[in-house]
Each structure stands twice: as structure tokens, then as C-alpha cells.
Design brief:
It is built from 20 helices and no strands. The protein is an all-alpha fold and 427 residues long. The chain has a domain at 3-110. InterPro entries: DUF6596 (IPR046531), RNA_pol_sigma-70_dom (IPR014284), RNA_pol_sigma70_r2 (IPR007627), RNA_pol_sigma70_r4_t2 (IPR013249), RNA_pol_sigma_r2 (IPR013325), RNA_pol_sigma_r3/r4-like (IPR013324), WH-like_DNA-bd_sf (IPR036388).
């Protein structure tokens, strides 16, 4: 195995195992920033060792064992710490005597520990923006650059947020817990935002070779279902769950056998998961019963429901979708929501109407590096027969896309725009 192959393997395993490592160490150490720091040390150990020795047969178990040993070393160096740390170290020594039982390490059930970690990262002492950035770093394993891209902000601003958040958690002595009652309510909106962002990263990966990261979608769905049981009377909890269920129902149809993306209007709807669609519709109905039809997640779920309930692409109620996006823009001022509205308007009223919205957004600073802006513009231009402009727009979008699958898709669309008939495929 070459060093490059080893590095790719390490990062692939790392994206899957990082949340398990952090939650396990946080549970033992009761210190989230320290757990995250030791987890990063474990990654460095893998990067140093695996290129020479090869990837272990059970890489997740190797990472867990190494992380726990580093935690034990840290506690041994801190003999002047509180008595509880000595007890934890004793427990870990006992556990280590049974090593290397790699199967038992892998079976270390994090259960709802991941959700507990998110609640800890979403403490009101942290700013709303810092909560989300810190959780995305720890749960999704996203880099500072990837998180900055998700928030359409400079890298330095995100780095500063993460550093401050870790410092606040370290200095405050916050309990590693899932709160209840009023404390749960205080953190709930931030927790919902983090779960939403985790799902989105799984649904369309920011970077890497794969367009989808199904394990993140599944984890976000699991946490959404747990949250629905923890806060059954909160309409937006059910709205988020509906949104995730309905989007996830299309997973099997979103890529071909080679993993290449298939756009929604080209998907085989027979592959859409009807059971998952029904679960999403039931969750959406629950928000209506709770009089929560106008929430951020609920409105998005209603949009996706329009797609899910259309038997064919031609049956899609684009006018209703455009109206729902209009409601969303009144609720949240977001250039990305406005871009999505442009797609719906372009489908409902014609490409010129959509293009007029997109052209206004071209002057929006926050979207300067956002690849879907020129992508949507290219689609609308192509429908108008302005093929050379469309090609240039798709090329610009491809240059901005960090995900390889998405980059390749946009390059193909640029090539098609040169002379092929215009398709009716919104991104």
C-alpha cells in the first residue's frame, strides 16, 4: 500500500470513527475539549504508523484502543487531579488488562452518547454560531475550511469560534449530559440545527470522493427520532424529522451503480422508499396537529413532501413549492433559500423569471464561492438556449465544487451545454 493509499484509508475510517472516539473519551473524562484533543492525537498516530505497517484488520478498534491509552496516559500525568480521575484511570487500567479484545472495543455502544455530546456542545454559554461549528467539527469530522463553507464565512472566523468554544467548555466545568425540562428547551433549537447540518453533510458531502455519506444521514435520523421522544410537543422537532425522513427516502435513487449523482427529475421514483415517505408525512402531520406549520424545518419538509407525493416529475406542484419558499424567505433571510426559490420559480413561471432572481443573487457577497449559484444559473441559461453562457456557468460551478462527484457532474453538464438539447433538470 502506498502512502497516498494509506492516507485515503485513514481519512475514510476517520470520518466514520471520530464521533465514537470523542463520545467514548468524553464519557470517561467528562471533558469534551480534552476528548476532542486526544482524538486528534489518535489520528496523528494513525497517520504516522499506518503508512508503514498497513491499515489494521479492524481499524476502528485500533483507533479506540489507542485513544483510550492516550487518555490513560493523560490521567497518569495528572496525579494531582481530582480523585474521580484516579478512579477513572483505575477502571481504564482494568479494562486495558483484557486488551487486545478488539471485538469488545468495537461493541462499545455509544447509544445516545452522540446526542449527549451535541447537547453539551450546544450549551447556552456558547454562542449559537460556536455551538454549531464545534459540533460539526467533533461529530462530522469536518475541517475548519469545510465548516466555513457550510456557513459561507471566512476560515479564520470559524477557527476563532471553535477555539473560543473549546476554551469556554474547558473553563466552565460544564457537565457532560443530556439535560431535561427547561434546560433541554434552552438548547433544543441549537441541537436541531446541528442535527440538520449533520444530515445535510451526509446528504451531499462537502468534500471527498463520495457524494453521499449515508452513516451521517442515518445517525442524524436516529437522533431526530430520539429528540421526538424527548420533546414530543415541540413542532419543529417533528418538522426536522419529517424533513430528514422525506429527503432520505430518495437515497437509493440519487446515485447510479458507479456512485455518480442523479438529479431529482431524472431519478427512478420506483426506488424511492415509500415506507420512509409515509413516516415523513406522519411527522409532518404531527407538526400540523401542534400548530407548527410555519417553522423553518416544517416549511422545508412541506416542500420535500410536494416532491415525494408527485407520482412523476411532471406532476410536481412547482407553484406550491415556490410559495413555500417565499414563506421561508419571510421567516429567514438567507441567500441560499432565495436561490432555491429561484429554481422553483423557474420551473413554475419559466426560466426567465428564475434567472432574474439568480442574477440579483450574483451580487450577494455570501454566495461568492458557492458553487450552486453558477450551477443554477447555468441550468436556467441552458433552458433559454443561451448555451455558451450556460457552459461558462457550469465550468465556473465545477471550479468551485470541492466534492469530486459534484465537480465531475458539473463538468459533464458544461460539455452537454455546448450543443445538446436543453434538459429540464434543476440541481
Amino acid at each position: 500500500m502506498t502512502a497516498a493509499d494509506a492516507h485515503r484509508a485513514i481519512l475514510a475510517v476517520w470520518r466514520i470513527e471520530q464521533p465514537r472516539l470523542i463520545t467514548s473519551l468524553a464519557r470517561m473524562l467528562r471533558d469534551v475539549p480534552l476528548a476532542e484533543e486526544l482524538t486528534q492525537d489518535t489520528l496523528l498516530a494513525a497517520l504516522e504508523r499506518w503508512p508503514a505497517t498497513g491499515v489494521p484488520e479492524k481499524p476502528g478498534a485500533w483507533l479506540m484502543l489507542t485513544a483510550k491509552r492516550r487518555a490513560l496516559d493523560h490521567l497518569r500525568r495528572g496525579r494531582m487531579l481530582e480523585r474521580k480521575h484516579e478512579i477513572i484511570a483505575l477502571d481504564m487500567e482494568t479494562e486495558q488488562q483484557a486488551m487486545p479484545d478488539f471485538d469488545s472495543v468495537l461493541d462499545d455502544d455509544i447509544g445516545d452518547e452522540l446526542l449527549r455530546l451535541i447537547f453539551t456542545a450546544c450549551h447556552p454559554l456558547l454562542s449559537r454560531e460556536a455551538r454549531a461549528a464545534l459540533a460539526l467539527r467533533m461529530i462530522c469530522g469536518l475541517t475548519t475550511e469545510e465548516i466555513a463553507r457550510a456557513f459561507l464565512l471566512p476560515d479564520a472566523a470559524i477557527a476563532q469560534r471553535i477555539v473560543r468554544a473549546k476554551r469556554t467548555l474547558s473553563e466552565s466545568g460544564l457537565t457532560y449530559e443530556t439535560p431535561s425540562g427547561e434546560e433541554l428547551s434552552k438548547r433544543l433549537s441549537s441541537v436541531l440545527e446541528v442535527v440538520y447540518l449533520i444530515f445535510n453533510e451526509g446528504y451531499t458531502a462537502t468534500r471527498g470522493h463520495d457524494w453521499l455519506r449515508p452513516q451521517l444521514c442515518n445517525e442524524a435520523l436516529r437522533m431526530g427520532r430520539v429528540l421526538a421522544s424527548l420533546a414530543p410537543h415541540e413542532p419543529e422537532v417533528h418538522g426536522l424529522l419529517a424533513l430528514m425522513e422525506l429527503n432520505a427516502s430518495r437515497t437509493a435513487a440519487r446515485t447510479d451503480a458507479a456512485g455518480e449523482p442523479i438529479l431529482m427529475l431524472d431519478q427512478n421514483r420506483a426506488l424511492w422508499d415509500q415506507l420512509q415517505i409515509q413516516r415523513g408525512i406522519r411527522a409532518l402531520q404531527r407538526t400540523r396537529e401542534l400548530s407548527g406549520t410555519g417553522g423553518f424545518y416544517t416549511l422545508q419538509a412541506a416542500i420535500v413532501a410536494c416532491h415525494a407525493q408527485a407520482k412523476t416529475a411532471d406532476d410536481t406542484d412547482w407553484s406550491s413549492i415556490a410559495g413555500l419558499y417565499a414563506e421561508l424567505t419571510m421567516l429567514v433571510s438567507s441567500p441560499i433559500i432565495e436561490l432555491n426559490r429561484a429554481v422553483a420559480v423557474g420551473m413554475a413561471e419559466g426560466p426567465e423569471a428564475g434567472l432574474s432572481i439568480v442574477d440579483r443573487l450574483m451580487r450577494e457577497p455570501a454566495l461568492k464561492g458557492y458553487h450552486l449559484l453558477p450551477s443554477v444559473r447555468g441550468d436556467l441559461l441552458r433552458k433559454l438556449g443561451r448555451c455558451e453562457e450556460a457552459r461558462a456557468a457550469f465550468e465556473a460551478a465545477a471550479a468551485l465544487a470541492d466534492n469530486r462527484r459534484e465537480h465531475d457532474l458539473l463538468r459533464r453538464r458544461a460539455a452537454e451545454a455546448a450543443g445538446a438539447p436543453a434538459p429540464r433538470r434543476p440541481l
